[in-house]
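Support request, please re-run this one:
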Amino acid sequence: MLLRRLATARPLSCLRPNPAIVSPASRLQKRWLSQEELDDPGMNGGYINPPPINRQHRDPYGDWWDKQERRNFGEPVHEDNDILGMFSPEEYNFYTPAQCFALLGCSVAVFLGFLGVVRLYYPDRPVVDRGYEGGLDRELGGEGALWARSEDGID
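Re-run finished. Output below.
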């Protein structure tokens, strides 16, 4: 069976589609740049989309047919209803970006002020640096090595 298949096998080049042969469906789907007036610019079958207003911003005390979703009977639904409905995430509109940056600047200023006060009133080290005879010149490697503090406090 395998030998029969191998004997009748065609080369792989015949499996590639010929670019000269274009199916009629792909010719119909092409849109040209010169096509100025489209029959359906929204490409939604002529459905009239209402303005994209989030339902959370509608009047909660209005006389709605559906009080939970705040819409009336027969009112067209926006195609992005899942984003604009009542159960979508809350839209954040409490602070403007300028107010956010002002609050961030105030918090940074308070934090840096607190660091300055701590630095001002933080006590010094409760110890005195130890001095060594001759500055441990020989013990640290001789001339050119790092110096230790000498007994008289002179480095």
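The chain has a mean pLDDT of 77. DSSP finds four helices and no strands in the chain.
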